[in-house]
């Protein structure tokens, strides 16, 4: 989903709080250790996110998230929860060798972003106005319309609109915005879901593996033209 430019300074972290429990012999009372409450995350700072975007992301995605290169996704107006999740998914989870969303380019950038940086840059891009892409192949887009709106019953493919909404706006914190995204980028991601190389959504993997090359191209073209 992302491509960012040269690294600056940044690293994912997570805060975990635990409670120490001490149990004595023969059902002695449980003693809970007294400790400080978990620190609350800092308030989101979209201005700081804009600085990060300018320094790190702009070359590939544009400072406002409106990439001009079809291989790099448009990030403007995307739901911040989705953007944050993707950045996290570019880094292998603790104890795992492979990221759920492998990317030789994005892995390095994501690894240098702190949890606070992730929230800030996601807030920045989500607040920007989208300059949507357009469908370049109207015939394919028309074929994709039925897939997006109705699905393919014979293959068990549900309508994309059911999760991403009829106009592709998505549902905040649940499903990403797809309207106006580059068809080339959407096609690539659906293909990666189908092959299993992108593994950060079992739901999308199951759907994509039922689509042919032409069906993927068609629905990608249709989504590019959604408004």
What does this structure look like?
Helix 2 (80-89) packs across helix 4 (115-126), helix 5 (138-149) packs across helix 9 and helix 7 runs antiparallel to helix 9 (213-224). The protein has helices spanning 46-61, 80-89, 104-111, 115-126, 138-149, 161-164, 183-195, 202-208, 213-224; strands at 21-22, 31-32. It starts with 20 loop residues before the first strand and ends with a helix. The model is unreliable at 4-33 (pLDDT under 50). The protein has two domains: 1-131, Cytochrome c-like domain (Cytochrome Bc1 Complex, Chain D, domain 2, Orthogonal Bundle); 138-224, Cytochrome c-like domain (Cytochrome Bc1 Complex, Chain D, domain 2), CATH 1.10.760.10. It has nine helices and two strands. The protein has 227 residues and is mostly helical.
List keywords for this structure.
Cytochrome Bc1 Complex, Chain D, domain 2; two-stranded antiparallel ribbon; 227 residues; mainly alpha; 2 domains
- Given the C-alpha coordinates, what overall shape results? globular
What's the CATH topology name of the largest domain? Cytochrome Bc1 Complex, Chain D, domain 2
CATH class bucket of the largest domain: Mainly Alpha
Number of strands: 2
CATH architecture grouping of the largest domain: Orthogonal Bundle
Spatially, the strands of the biggest sheet line up as 1-2
CATH homologous superfamily grouping of the largest domain: Cytochrome c-like domain
Mean pLDDT over all positions: 87
Give the strand content.
under 5%
- What letter string, H or E per element, gives the SSE order? EEHHHHHHHHH
Q: How many domain regions?
A: 2
Main sheet characteristics: 2 strands, antiparallel
Query: What radius of gyration results from the CA coordinates?
Result: 21 Å
Q: How helix-rich are the residues, as a percent range?
A: 40-55%
């Amino acid at each position: 989903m992302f491509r960012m430019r040269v690294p600056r300074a940044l690293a994912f972290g997570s805060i975990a709080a635990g409670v120490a429990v001490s149990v004595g012999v023969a059902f002695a009372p449980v003693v809970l250790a007294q400790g400080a409450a978990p620190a609350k995350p800092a308030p989101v700072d979209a201005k700081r996110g804009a600085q990060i975007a300018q320094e790190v992301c702009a070359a590939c995605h544009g400072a406002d998230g409106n990439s001009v290169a079809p291989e790099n996704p448009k990030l403007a107006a995307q739901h911040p929860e989705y953007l944050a999740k993707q950045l996290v998914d570019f880094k292998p989870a603790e104890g795992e060798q492979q990221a759920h969303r492998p990317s030789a380019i994005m892995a390095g950038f994501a690894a240098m972003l702190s949890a606070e940086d992730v929230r800030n840059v996601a807030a920045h891009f989500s607040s920007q106005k989208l300059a949507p892409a357009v469908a370049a192949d109207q015939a394919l887009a028309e074929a994709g319309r039925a897939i997006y709106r109705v699905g393919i019953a014979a293959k068990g493919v549900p309508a994309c609109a059911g999760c991403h909404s009829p106009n592709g706006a998505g549902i905040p914190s649940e499903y990403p915005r797809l309207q106006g995204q580059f068809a080339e980028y959407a096609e690539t991601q659906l293909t990666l879901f189908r092959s299993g190389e992108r593994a950060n959504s079992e739901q999308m993997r199951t759907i994509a593996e039922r689509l042919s090359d032409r069906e993927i191209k068609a629905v990608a073209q249709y989504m590019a033209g959604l408004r």
